[in-house]
Amino acid sequence: MPESTKARLIKALFEGFEQDKPDPRTELHYVNPFTLLVAVVLSAQATDKGVNKATELLFRMASNPRDMADIGLDDLTRMLSTINLYRNKAKNVHRLSEILLEKHGGEVPLSREALLELPGVGNKTASVVLNELNVEPAIAVDTHVYRVSHRLGLVDAQANTPEKVERELMRTIPKPWLTRAHHWLILHGRYICVARKPKCEICIVADLCPRIGVETVPFVDAKDKAKARKSPDAKLHTKALRRPRG
Hints:
Number of strands: 2
Distance between the termini: 27 Å
Radius of gyration: 19 Å
Number of domains: 2
Largest sheet: 2 strands, antiparallel
């Protein structure tokens, strides 16, 4: 797709998203930067709904690193037992709370470099946290963002990894929409442009969508895998899909 055509498409698409939902937000529940960080770490390979259910009591008991560390690993593991990969995630949350106390005065560092040093925090997690807190525009590419970006023609077919999709989106989406783009794309993929049967009949940008199919092999972000071991930050499973006929 020529750059000029893509630019016009992007402008029309995001004007539609903005009109429909001017102020999109993450569906993870949090009360401060620390609880946001914990929620995002817990959300790897888990649903936001499942994370919110597990953290409802946890965040009432511990909304700062000191209280979280004081809970103790055994009790923390028990409280997170409804979340996928909860044992490893509990270790990460407990240890990152200790590190925040030891090295950062109990505060969440608002730089990518410092965040990446924390257990369980990979590039995708850092991007979500920094973007949500309006520190640094970022687009964390998960399965929904990856799928929607290809279907809408926001990226070329050569953008066949999350990193390439992220770079392309960051390059082409205008700054006024950049901090909100992640939320628009993930919510659109979660509720409208779903994997198996996209709800084109109620899509607000259906008249603009080229409905491009995608096909990739599963991937695991290498940095996130190294950080979280058995709890990688992101994994994509997308299949070639096109709009159903009729």
